[in-house]
UniProtKB/TrEMBL annotation:
It comes from Coemansia umbellata. Residues 1-196 form the AMMECR1 domain. InterPro entries: AMMECR1 (IPR023473), AMMECR1_dom_sf (IPR036071), AMMECR1_domain (IPR002733), AMMECR1_N (IPR027485). Transmembrane segments: none annotated. Coiled coil: none annotated. This is AMMECR1 domain-containing protein. Gene3D superfamilies: Hypothetical protein ph0010, domain 1 (3.30.700.20).
Length: 198
Protein backbone atom coordinates (compact mmCIF):
# COMPACT_ATOMS: atom_id res chain seq x y z
CA UNK A 1 0.00 0.00 0.00
CA UNK A 2 1.24 3.50 -0.82
CA UNK A 3 0.89 6.41 1.57
CA UNK A 4 -1.90 8.75 0.41
CA UNK A 5 -3.18 12.27 0.99
CA UNK A 6 -6.03 10.71 2.99
CA UNK A 7 -3.49 9.45 5.51
CA UNK A 8 -2.10 12.97 5.85
CA UNK A 9 -5.59 14.48 6.08
CA UNK A 10 -6.43 12.06 8.90
CA UNK A 11 -3.33 13.28 10.78
CA UNK A 12 -4.55 16.88 10.33
CA UNK A 13 -8.01 15.84 11.60
CA UNK A 14 -6.44 14.29 14.71
CA UNK A 15 -4.11 17.21 15.47
CA UNK A 16 -6.82 19.82 14.85
CA UNK A 17 -9.22 17.99 17.17
CA UNK A 18 -6.59 17.88 19.93
CA UNK A 19 -5.60 21.54 19.56
CA UNK A 20 -9.27 22.61 19.59
CA UNK A 21 -9.96 20.62 22.77
CA UNK A 22 -11.86 17.69 21.23
CA UNK A 23 -10.82 14.11 21.99
CA UNK A 24 -8.74 12.74 19.06
CA UNK A 25 -10.21 9.29 19.74
CA UNK A 26 -13.51 10.56 18.31
CA UNK A 27 -11.91 11.22 14.90
CA UNK A 28 -12.88 8.51 12.40
CA UNK A 29 -10.41 7.14 9.87
CA UNK A 30 -12.21 6.97 6.51
CA UNK A 31 -9.38 5.65 4.33
CA UNK A 32 -9.16 2.09 2.98
CA UNK A 33 -6.88 -0.45 4.63
CA UNK A 34 -6.98 1.20 8.04
CA UNK A 35 -6.54 -2.18 9.73
CA UNK A 36 -3.35 -3.00 7.77
CA UNK A 37 -0.11 -2.78 9.72
CA UNK A 38 3.03 -0.83 8.78
CA UNK A 39 6.01 0.79 10.45
CA UNK A 40 5.35 4.49 9.94
CA UNK A 41 6.55 8.04 10.51
CA UNK A 42 4.58 11.29 10.67
CA UNK A 43 6.41 14.53 9.84
CA UNK A 44 5.19 18.09 10.38
CA UNK A 45 6.81 21.05 8.61
CA UNK A 46 5.97 24.74 8.92
CA UNK A 47 6.18 27.32 6.16
CA UNK A 48 8.42 30.18 7.28
CA UNK A 49 8.05 33.85 6.38
CA UNK A 50 10.77 33.36 3.75
CA UNK A 51 8.75 30.58 2.11
CA UNK A 52 10.87 27.65 3.29
CA UNK A 53 9.43 24.56 4.96
CA UNK A 54 11.08 24.00 8.34
CA UNK A 55 10.84 20.81 10.36
CA UNK A 56 8.46 21.02 13.37
CA UNK A 57 8.35 17.39 14.37
CA UNK A 58 9.11 13.92 13.05
CA UNK A 59 8.59 10.74 15.04
CA UNK A 60 7.59 7.23 14.09
CA UNK A 61 7.92 3.56 14.91
CA UNK A 62 9.69 0.62 13.29
CA UNK A 63 7.21 -1.90 14.68
CA UNK A 64 4.21 -2.53 12.39
CA UNK A 65 1.09 -0.73 13.66
CA UNK A 66 -2.51 -0.54 12.49
CA UNK A 67 -2.70 2.48 10.21
CA UNK A 68 -5.64 4.11 11.98
CA UNK A 69 -4.27 3.89 15.52
CA UNK A 70 -0.63 4.33 14.45
CA UNK A 71 -1.30 7.51 12.49
CA UNK A 72 -3.46 8.87 15.31
CA UNK A 73 -0.71 8.21 17.87
CA UNK A 74 2.17 9.59 15.83
CA UNK A 75 0.29 12.59 14.44
CA UNK A 76 0.18 13.79 18.05
CA UNK A 77 3.53 12.44 19.25
CA UNK A 78 5.45 14.11 16.42
CA UNK A 79 3.52 17.37 16.81
CA UNK A 80 3.67 17.63 20.60
CA UNK A 81 6.51 15.48 21.94
CA UNK A 82 9.47 15.82 19.58
CA UNK A 83 11.98 17.08 22.16
CA UNK A 84 13.86 19.11 19.52
CA UNK A 85 10.93 21.55 19.27
CA UNK A 86 8.22 23.29 21.27
CA UNK A 87 4.79 21.62 20.89
CA UNK A 88 2.83 22.78 17.85
CA UNK A 89 0.14 25.34 18.69
CA UNK A 90 -3.29 25.97 17.16
CA UNK A 91 -2.09 29.23 15.59
CA UNK A 92 0.52 27.30 13.57
CA UNK A 93 -1.99 24.89 12.00
CA UNK A 94 -2.61 26.91 8.77
CA UNK A 95 1.14 27.02 8.05
CA UNK A 96 1.71 23.27 8.44
CA UNK A 97 2.39 20.51 5.97
CA UNK A 98 1.99 16.87 6.97
CA UNK A 99 3.95 13.96 5.52
CA UNK A 100 3.23 10.29 6.16
CA UNK A 101 5.88 7.66 5.42
CA UNK A 102 4.99 3.96 5.37
CA UNK A 103 8.19 1.95 5.72
CA UNK A 104 8.83 -1.16 3.60
CA UNK A 105 11.54 -3.52 2.34
CA UNK A 106 13.74 -3.78 5.43
CA UNK A 107 17.11 -5.43 4.69
CA UNK A 108 20.25 -6.00 6.72
CA UNK A 109 23.09 -4.15 4.98
CA UNK A 110 26.48 -5.80 4.41
CA UNK A 111 28.15 -2.76 5.98
CA UNK A 112 27.53 0.93 6.64
CA UNK A 113 28.06 1.82 2.95
CA UNK A 114 25.60 -0.76 1.58
CA UNK A 115 22.71 1.56 0.70
CA UNK A 116 21.74 4.14 -1.95
CA UNK A 117 21.17 7.84 -1.31
CA UNK A 118 17.62 8.83 -2.24
CA UNK A 119 16.41 5.22 -2.32
CA UNK A 120 17.04 3.85 1.15
CA UNK A 121 16.35 5.05 4.62
CA UNK A 122 19.03 4.01 7.08
CA UNK A 123 18.66 2.72 10.62
CA UNK A 124 21.96 2.56 12.47
CA UNK A 125 22.69 0.59 15.63
CA UNK A 126 25.87 1.08 17.65
CA UNK A 127 27.26 0.78 21.16
CA UNK A 128 28.69 3.61 23.23
CA UNK A 129 32.09 3.15 24.92
CA UNK A 130 30.12 2.25 28.06
CA UNK A 131 28.36 -0.56 26.21
CA UNK A 132 24.92 1.06 25.83
CA UNK A 133 23.07 0.26 22.63
CA UNK A 134 21.94 3.31 20.66
CA UNK A 135 19.98 3.69 17.44
CA UNK A 136 19.18 6.50 15.03
CA UNK A 137 17.49 6.74 11.65
CA UNK A 138 17.04 9.02 8.66
CA UNK A 139 14.16 8.54 6.23
CA UNK A 140 15.12 7.97 2.56
CA UNK A 141 14.83 11.61 1.48
CA UNK A 142 17.00 13.15 4.22
CA UNK A 143 20.52 12.50 2.89
CA UNK A 144 19.56 13.69 -0.59
CA UNK A 145 17.81 16.83 0.71
CA UNK A 146 20.83 17.71 2.87
CA UNK A 147 23.37 17.00 0.11
CA UNK A 148 25.25 14.54 2.34
CA UNK A 149 27.56 11.77 1.20
CA UNK A 150 27.09 8.31 2.68
CA UNK A 151 29.85 8.86 5.25
CA UNK A 152 28.43 12.27 6.20
CA UNK A 153 25.02 10.65 6.66
CA UNK A 154 26.46 7.94 8.91
CA UNK A 155 28.33 10.53 10.97
CA UNK A 156 25.17 12.63 11.37
CA UNK A 157 23.32 9.48 12.46
CA UNK A 158 25.97 8.74 15.07
CA UNK A 159 25.68 12.28 16.44
CA UNK A 160 21.88 12.06 16.36
CA UNK A 161 22.13 8.83 18.35
CA UNK A 162 24.26 10.53 21.00
CA UNK A 163 27.79 9.44 20.07
CA UNK A 164 30.07 12.30 21.16
CA UNK A 165 33.61 10.95 20.65
CA UNK A 166 35.77 11.22 17.52
CA UNK A 167 34.25 9.15 14.71
CA UNK A 168 36.87 6.83 13.23
CA UNK A 169 36.64 4.46 10.23
CA UNK A 170 36.96 1.59 12.71
CA UNK A 171 33.98 2.82 14.71
CA UNK A 172 31.86 3.18 11.57
CA UNK A 173 32.76 -0.43 10.71
CA UNK A 174 31.51 -1.56 14.14
CA UNK A 175 27.97 -0.28 13.49
CA UNK A 176 25.03 -2.32 12.19
CA UNK A 177 22.98 -0.77 9.39
CA UNK A 178 19.49 -1.73 8.28
CA UNK A 179 18.25 -0.17 5.06
CA UNK A 180 14.62 0.31 4.13
CA UNK A 181 12.39 2.13 1.67
CA UNK A 182 9.26 4.19 2.18
CA UNK A 183 6.04 5.21 0.49
CA UNK A 184 5.50 8.89 1.25
CA UNK A 185 2.57 11.30 0.91
CA UNK A 186 2.74 15.07 1.46
CA UNK A 187 -0.19 17.43 2.14
CA UNK A 188 -0.16 21.19 2.87
CA UNK A 189 -2.90 22.59 5.11
CA UNK A 190 -4.52 24.49 2.21
CA UNK A 191 -4.99 21.26 0.26
CA UNK A 192 -6.26 19.55 3.39
CA UNK A 193 -8.99 22.21 3.68
CA UNK A 194 -9.93 21.67 0.04
CA UNK A 195 -10.23 17.92 0.64
CA UNK A 196 -12.48 18.41 3.63
CA UNK A 197 -14.80 20.80 1.74
CA UNK A 198 -15.95 17.99 -0.55
Amino acid sequence: MAATNEHCAYCFDVLAAYLKGTSPSTVTASFDGKDKEYPLFVTWEKRSSSGDDRLRGCIGNFSPMRLDSGLREYALTSALRDTRFHPISLSELPKLTCSVSLLTDFEDAIDYMDWDIGTHGVWLEFRTPGGRKRTATFLPEIAKEQGWSKIETIDHLLRKGGYELTITPEFRESTKLTRYQSQKAYLPYSEYLDMRKH
